[in-house]
User: Fold this.
Amino acid sequence: MRLIRRHPLFAAVSLCALAVLAARPSDGGGGGDGGAHVPGHGTASGVGAEVVRLYEEAAAATRTYEEGRRAAEKQRAQARRLEKLLDRERRKVDDLNEDLGRIARSQYRSGGGLPLTAHLILAEDPEGVMRGQRALWKADLALDHAIEKSRRAEQRLARDEAEAAAAWQRLERRNKQLSRVKNGIERKLEAARRHLQGQADASVAAGACRGAVRLDQPETRYDTPWVAPVEAYGLSASYGAGGARWANRHTGQDFAVPIGTPVRAVGAGKVVKVSCHGAFGIEVVIEHAGGYFTQYAHLAAAAVDQGERVRTGQWIGQSGTSGNSTGPHLHFEVRVTAETGSAVDPVSWLARRDVPL
Assistant:
């Protein structure tokens, strides 16, 4: 399956706030997993997996709700269209009745209340009287037929309009129920995100990782060797940006995504570092063929252990706002070494690998 990149959200988001010089591993971390596991802490996979599951449920509920909303809008438009046709048909019947009334009045005026036989006897041109009478009869009959046809059309339209309106109302009631379900899932998701981030903050404060979060990996296979680190995102702080948040210049590209968003390995490689301390918070570094390294920082959880080999698109963690960060996002770097100070522009690096951001 070929990867289809979703369009960026292009929203104003909080930026990565890190001091690059402070991001180097502490002496106790050894550049590996950031130290021993926190005593008494097990794997965070329960919360991380719950966040992923709720993401999927929220997405499915949103899709169902949007499908229902579109169906309701379509049904409502149909009801309005039928309502307009019904109004038009009713006006047509009124006009035909008015025409019939004019014919009747004409007959009364020309006939003067006398029977047709008397008109024929008194007329100077009996044939002309007959022709005129036949024309009136035909007009009268044609109008009767037209009125009956329009009344049948009016009845049919009234029935269709009532059915369309009833269907629209049923869809509206269903959509209200779906909206409640969707909002309930989103509330649970937000609570799970807070829990997951709380665990991440505790790990960073202790300077030790909890262990890899083992997530159910999607079956997706890519026919391209490189992908974006997250599927849907908004780009925020870019490589080389200046400001008080960084010791020198921003060394990566930030992707604004909610806490718990699955983070993907941009290419196949080997995990050479999983760290849970310092300015980068929870981070993963992967070595790729050709001598390049990619870093994924400010995570809420890591889904891989040091030494693992990963494939393109594999989930290697979940985004968060751990470490020196001002809001949920993924800080993504490309380096020529595993450590800081050797970063290159990740946007152009990925572009050369046919991954536009």
Remarks:
- The helical segments are 45-111, 116-122, 126-206, 346-351.
